């Protein structure tokens, strides 16, 4: 009896402590969108890669694009860069590693193996190639090492060419880009909002490729994680995370057009010229000099990686465009972000935004947090997700069959098992006629027949029930067209496909 009383007291104390902690967190930090997002941001914790059914029923891409999984179950991955021969280099800051995902030599849409390229680094994040050098941004230094693009191996010694970067406080990651013989380094702030002691914090710096002749290139940038150059004019753009603790809908996160010597407002000015309530009164004169964002993302969406499209196969309306990974909110009553958006520049420089890869968050349920974008030599875009440890592959005009099935299992499907053999046979016959009528074999393989390069229809029982497959036909993922099928026809087509795929 005494043992049970002691256990009950322990449980009560744990619950009480958690409630107190939650109250303190709410008072200190305001509303939290999702505990999962907070634990992911602070500790790098996440979940397993989603299975095929989850991906097919929750994630979506625009018409004409297809979605696959290039790699799964890679813990806490962040930034990516392709070598000239197609090996994908990926950073794992919290493990101190840089990974190499071997090029897709057999062209099955997935990497051909994962190995550790470098280990025992100090929270490596940003990556960049310049000729035969791989540059790596650690939290307190920038290093480089010779890299053999043909063999995908290192051919020399790792050397830190920039040291003494501070990594205390909130925003310790460093991101890098190289252009025209210069190395650009972003260095976030130590805090949500404050006046920094180190003038290099909340800036983008520029160095020679050997790490010499460093200068502050632009300042007032709270946390510019993503950097990239527009291919049509060479202009540098950077994403920036707006400050927290000012409510659900203020201030905007930013895309900034970076000018040499430019000041972008933080911590005195938010968004489009608004004085900060904590620090704005001290420096009102800066309101006239702070450069406005080129584009405002929704507040707390946390834009991270940005990639201007130059290699990806894409339709005409993506000619002057970039993809941006929105990591998703934590300091918000309702979750927001958690997707990849496409930004489109018109001839006058105006920018508009569309959803590109969405569905990572639905009604508070989070299955992923996009981080970075890379363009592959195959003409597809790649998206890293540090929450689910997945790298997604998005292609235009190419079918894919690379969704994760290793966690799938035979679905419990009472409706399927309730069908009599006669009813199943009759519906399957009608479904076969529908399959032929709509020329499904021109895009799919079923039992070895159909388009040899089309998406294979297999293991459907592990991914769908009779009901969920019937519903899927209402809004199928692109590039599959949306057919005007009655409920009965959708049922018959589902029965046929489930009958053909064990």
Descriptive notes:
The protein is of the alpha+beta class. Helix content is 17%, strand content 29%. The strands form 9 sheets. Strands 6, 7, 8, 9 and 10 form a 5-stranded antiparallel β-sheet that branches. Strands 11-12-13-14-18 form a 5-stranded mixed β-sheet, with no helix packed on it. Strands 1-30-29-28 form a 4-stranded antiparallel β-sheet, with no helix packed on it. A hairpin with a 6-residue loop joins strand 15 (227-229) and strand 16. Helix 6 (466-472) packs across helix 7 (487-500). The protein is globular, with a radius of gyration of 25 Å. The termini are far apart.
How many helices? The count is: 7
Largest sheet: 5 strands, antiparallel
Overall morphology: globular
Helix content: 10-25%
**In CATH terms, what is the architecture of the largest domain?**
6 Propeller
Radius of gyration: 25 Å
Mean pLDDT across all amino acids? 89
Which homologous superfamily in CATH is the superfamily of the largest domain? TolB, C-terminal domain
| Strand elements, count | 33
Q: What's the short story on this structure?
A:
Keywords: Heme, Iron, Metal-binding. By secondary structure, the protein is α+β, with helices and mostly antiparallel strands. The chain is built from 7 helices and 33 strands.
In terms of topology, how is this protein built?
Blueprint: H1 2-29, H2 35-43, H3 52-58, E1 65-71, E2 80-82, E3 88-92, E4 97-101, E5 114-118, E6 127-130, E7 133-137, E8 142-148, E9 153-154, E10 159-162, E11 174-179, E12 182-187, E13 203-208, E14 215-219, E15 227-229, E16 236-240, E17 253-257, E18 262-263, E19 269-270, E20 274-275, E21 295-297, E22 303-308, E23 321-326, E24 339-345, E25 351-357, E26 361-362, E27 365-366, E28 370-375, E29 381-385, E30 390-396, H4 414-418, H5 421-437, E31 444-446, E32 449-450, E33 455-456, H6 466-472, H7 487-500
Parallel strand pairs: 14-18, 31-33
Antiparallel strand pairs: 1-30, 2-3, 3-4, 4-5, 6-7, 7-8, 8-9, 8-10, 11-12, 12-13, 13-14, 15-16, 16-17, 17-21, 19-20, 22-23, 23-24, 24-25, 26-27, 28-29, 29-30, 31-32
